[in-house]
Amino acid sequence: MVKLKASLIFAVIAVLVIALAGFLKDVRFITIALRCVVGFLAAGAVSYLVMFLLEAKKIAIFELKEALGDGESEMREEQETAQEDGEASGEQEEESEEGSETNDGFQPLDARSLRHMEAPPGS
After folding, report:
1. Cα 71–77–79 angle (5° rounding)?
2. Mind listing the pLDDT tens digit for each residue in 21-46?
3. Which of 3, 100, 103, 107 is geometrically suited to a Cys-Cys bond with 51, CB 3.0 to 4.6 A?
4. How far apart are the C-alpha atoms of 14 and 115, rounded to whole Å?
5. Mean pLDDT: which of 14-18, 49-53, 63-67, 77-81 is highest?
6. Which among 7, 64, 65 is positioned nearest to 40, based on CA atoms?
C-alpha cells in the first residue's frame, strides 16, 4: 500500500509540474490535459516499478507491517522490561552516587597523556 501511495504522490507532482509548464508556455488546454494524463501514468508506473525492484532486491522495505512482523510484540516486551529495569536502576543509581567517590581507574584525557605523532620526513 505504501508503494501505491508513494507512486500516486509522484504522479500528482508530475501532473502539477506538467500543467504549470504548459500554462506558462500558453499551450492549448487539450495538449496540457493529454500531457498530464500521459505524465501521470508514466510517473506513477516508473516510480512503482522502481520501488518494486528496490523491495525485490531487499535494498529498501516499503511495507512497514511486513518489516516489523512479530517484531512489534517484541518491541512492546522490550519496552516493558526497560521500564521495569528503569525502576530497578533508579535504586542502583542512588547507591552508585554514594559509591561514586571511588575513581574506578577512570582518568580524563589531557595533552600529556596522549601519544604525539610526528610528521613523516619529506612531507
Report:
1. 100
2. 999 999 999 999 999 999 999 999 99
3. 3
4. 58
5. 14-18
6. 7
How many angstroms from the chain centroid is the CA of residue 51?
15
Would you state the cell numbers that stand for residue 79, as one nine-digit string?
519496552
Rg of the chain over all Cα atoms, to the nearest angstrom: 30
* 17 contacts: CB under 8 Å, gap ≥ 6: 39
DSSP 1-63: -HHHHHHHHHHHHHHHHHHHHHHHTT--HHHHHHHHHHHHHHHHHHHHHHHHHHHHTTS----
Sorted by where each begins, the domain ranges of the chain are 2-75
